[in-house]
Amino acid sequence: MDIVDTISSILSCKKTREVWTIDPDRTVFEAIQSMSDKNIGALPVVKESKLVGIVSERDYTRKVILKGRSSRETPVGAIMTAEVITVPPSIEVVACLHLMTEKSIRHLPVLQEGELVGIVSIGDLVRHIISAQGALISQLKDYVIGSYPG
What would be the CATH architecture of the domain defined by 7-145? Predict the structure, then answer.
């Protein structure tokens, strides 16, 4: 693990490589139920194997609850964010973190040659950076006290 790792290194370390998605014609209730069941905060919205949006808990609170809509009747497509910011697996973790901070987003779908291969959260990135920094500090400490393998 390195401080300059790419998103592909995070995807390869995740417990599951499965990417959960939802169709835009499903109801918001089904999306929220799926997010709850899987303990995730967002779902890529996929139609005919193509990423067409992303729906998050934030979308639910702002576009359903605050607007007085019914989650059992509103389709995901009506509240999803259609202009999705995506990244390739080759982007560095730090660059990704800057992008998410700049755009105020918490989840980024990862596309490789137009295919959805994963999704990363800001929490995934922070955990990775903290772990990489810990490893670097340990290596530097070993180097300074002379026990670094050389």
Answer: Roll (3.10)
